[in-house]
Each structure stands twice: as structure tokens, then as C-alpha cells.
Amino acid sequence: xxxxxxxxxxxxxxxxxxxxxxxxxxxxxxxxxxxxxxxxxxxxxxxxxxxxxxxxxxxxxxxxxxxxxxxxxxxxxxxxxxxxxxxxxxxxxxxxxxxxxxxxxxxxxxxxxxxxxxxxxxxxxxxxxxxxxxxxxxxxxxxxxxxxxxxxxxxxxxxxxxxxxxxxxxxxxxxxxxxxxxxxxxxxxxxxxxxxxxxxxxxxxxxxxxxxxxxxxxxxxxxxxxxxxxxxxxxxxxxxxxxxxxxxxxxxxxxxxxxxxxxxxxxxxxxxxxxxxxxxxxxxxxxxxxxxxxxxxxxxxxxxxxxxxxxxxxxxxxxxxxxxxxxxxxxxxxx
Length: 335
Description:
Helix content: 10-25%
Number of helices: 6
Low-confidence stretches: 5-31
């Protein structure tokens, strides 16, 4: 399955390259020659934005990301109608995601951010559909960023974010188990169906409150690095669970071919580590690596294709999940 995702990413990336290189570049650069410096144009390098690692730049910005992916090697528990675990099997889960974000610079040093996201997942086998069902997650983010230091080749910012998610799930197995248990306890069929509704549809919410720092450094116009660290508290979707600490960190390296070869193409590599998933209680820590190819012909516009590979720990087993994901990402800076 991972090989198929890689081939799709390569074909899409090749198509994007052809479209970008063949398009008009010189007129666009000429029109922007007298414009104010772009927020991501720092130290002579045009930094490429990453969706997994926040940058320290203060700007008024709109972002959008749309993607799809597949999780493989997912361990699916098998239960009998009495709710007893009788075995395990391995299966895949497909998912899609959509995210919008807007950041408003209220001064040269302060910016406020609002974001909304949604994703859905569904098992790709009968076992996965019956056991895991299907689910959808909707989230929001409210945040503020403050520029602390800005030098000729590096800068440092601090940020605080409040993130919330709502999880909706449909569990066919939970519904059947509730109906069977109700009838076994002496109830009638009508009451059993009503009793199963609570197990068929589930809903949970969680919140994260994190704060941290992010930095950027550029040793030359063709290369730049960013890094971030977040610490905070988080809660799980399951009610009654204790709050737990959250630690996220990561880094990026971006390469712009424009200063070297006058080719409006940029390459981005990124890494992110999360100690606690925001999208599911069944996921423990996860590590994500990404590679992206972006159009750099316009300093205020970033358009690219990103591919991700993640290793995700499962809360109920020591086995790791492999996740492959591809998305189209866009960012426009208004100042």
C-alpha cells in the first residue's frame, strides 16, 4: 500500500513541476520587484512553509491544506458478541483531511491565529469496518505569536495555542453487542434497539493548551532552517481520563533553487514528534517525516505538494502503525 502512495506522490509531483516550470515566472518576479519584503523572505532566503512545524514569522496569512492517506499494519482486536477479545488481525484504514487557517498581524511583533480542520477515516476491510467503525474529527485552534528577537540571519518567536477537537464515531460492533446484551438480560427487541443507539453513535471532545518557541536561521540565500518546541497539558476524548503532559518538537530544512539556478522550485524536508495524539485516544506518540516540492516564483504565494511518512505507537499494543499521506498545501502572505 505504501508503494502505491509513493507512486501517486511521484506522478503528482512531476505534474506539478511541469506546470510550474512551464508557467510565466519572469513577469511575476518583475511585478513584485518593488514590493515590500515578504514575511518569509528573511536573511535573503525565501523560507518554505511546513504544515507540521510552525515558523516564527509574523504576518497576515491565509493557509489551506487538502490531503489523503492510508494507515497500514493497524492491529484490529476481534471480539465475540459477549464483548470478549478472542484474537487480533492486521488491517488498513484510509482517511482524508482538510484544513484552513488565518493569521492576522496586529503589529510588527504580534500576530493572532484562527484555524479549523476536519478529517474522516474508514477501514478498508470488513474486519476494520466492524471493529473500528468509521469516525470524523473536527478541530479548531486559537493562538497568538510574539516576535522576541530578530537579527540579520536568525529570529526567535514565542507562541501560545488552545486547540480543541470533537470526535464522532460509528461502531457497528458496539451496537450489536449492546443489543445482544440487552436481550440476554431479558429485554425485548424494541428496547434493545434503543439501548444499542448509545453504543452505535459516540462523541468525545478534547483540548490542548500549549506554549513554546520557534526559530529560523539562514546561512545563505538558498538554504534555511527552522525549529520549534511546544510544552503543555492535554486531555483525552474519553471522559474521566486524567490530563497528561504534551511535548511536541520538530525542525525543517528548506532549499530554494531560485538564487542558484533561477529555477522557481523549492524543496522542503521536515520532522515532527508528538508525545500525545490530538486526533485519537488509541494513538500514543508519533514521529512524522515529510518531503515537499514548492513553487517559489512568487514571494507572497507558496503552493506545493507534501508527502508524509509517520511511525505511530498504539496505546493497546507495542506494534507500530505506518502512515503514508499526501497533501496539496497553499499559503498566501498579505504582508
